[in-house]
Amino acid sequence: MNKWAQQIMVMALVTTAGGVGWAQPEIDEILPDAAHMGCTVALVGNGFSADPQENDVSFNGTAAEVVYSDDWLLLTVVPAQATSGLVTVTVADQSSNAVPFTVLGAEGPPALDVIEPAAGPVGALVVLTGTNLGDFWCGQELEVAFNGTESPWAVATDSTTIFTVVPNTSAGDVAVVAVVDGVSSNAVRFAGC
């Protein structure tokens, strides 16, 4: 029998010496195993409650909201103030195994390293690379400014890459800054033409 079939067949209720109780929940994996605060992640395993409020999820000691639950799947939001560490689920006073999880962006403010190309006209597509640059899939607020003029379009594909276009800015030496959830990065230089 394959893993998914076993998980679907696991019953959340078991008979114990004291009567009916919950089976100990078990986390097999977290998808993805690294994400930003505010992102939704999936906990795959068994022994979860079908009622989201009966599943207490903890990210390294910080309580998380469960937005969907089934006996083998939980969708939960990485809480604000979460830190990298172990994730657990508790159902009816039964705690699961602990699974490692990395909270992205908790390492510090956004930092830009490179802008490519380093020069271009208004409307040109540019790529910014660095660290802690946000995550499009998690709904983080992102703004890229060229000498204080916001780009009309910017998207972070992961925490290291932003795609954006050059806004209508003055020609010459331009300072480019990324702002992720209200926190500004360092500036990199761009030559507007």
Summary tags:
193 residues; mainly beta; Immunoglobulin-like; 2 domains; nine-stranded mixed β-sheet; six-stranded mixed β-sheet; 1 helix; 54% strand; disordered N terminus
CATH topology term of the largest domain: Immunoglobulin-like
Mean pLDDT, to the nearest integer, reads 84
Low-confidence stretches: 1-19
CATH superfamily of the largest domain: Immunoglobulins
| Relative strand content | over 45%
Question: Can you tell me the CATH architecture of the largest domain?
Answer: Sandwich
Shape: elongated
> Helical segment tally?
1
Q: N- to C-terminal separation?
A: 63 Å
Number of domains as seen in the coordinates: 2
Give me the strand/helix succession: HEEEEEEEEEEEEEEEEEEEEE
Write down the Rg. Answer: 22 Å
Helix proportion range: under 10%
Major sheet size, sense and barrel closure: 9 strands, mixed
* Overall SS class: mainly beta
Give the CATH level 1 class of the largest domain. Mainly Beta
Describe the structure in your own words:
This protein is mainly beta and 193 residues long. It folds into two domains: 3-104, Immunoglobulin-like; 111-192, Sandwich (Immunoglobulin-like). Helices cover 4% and strands 54% of the residues. It is built from one helix and 21 strands. The protein has one helix at 3-9; strands at residues 13-16, 19-22, 26-31, 34-36, 40-46, 55-59, 62-69, 73-77, 85-91, 94-95, 99-104, 111-116, 119-120, 125-131, 142-146, 149-150, 154-158, 161-165, 172-180, 183-184, 188-192. The strands form four sheets. Strands 3, 4, 5, 6, 7, 8, 9, 10 and 11 form a nine-stranded mixed sheet that branches. Strands 13, 15, 16, 19, 20 and 21 form a six-stranded mixed sheet that branches. A four-stranded antiparallel sheet has the order 12-14-18-17, with no helix packed on it. The radius of gyration is 22 Å and the shape is elongated.
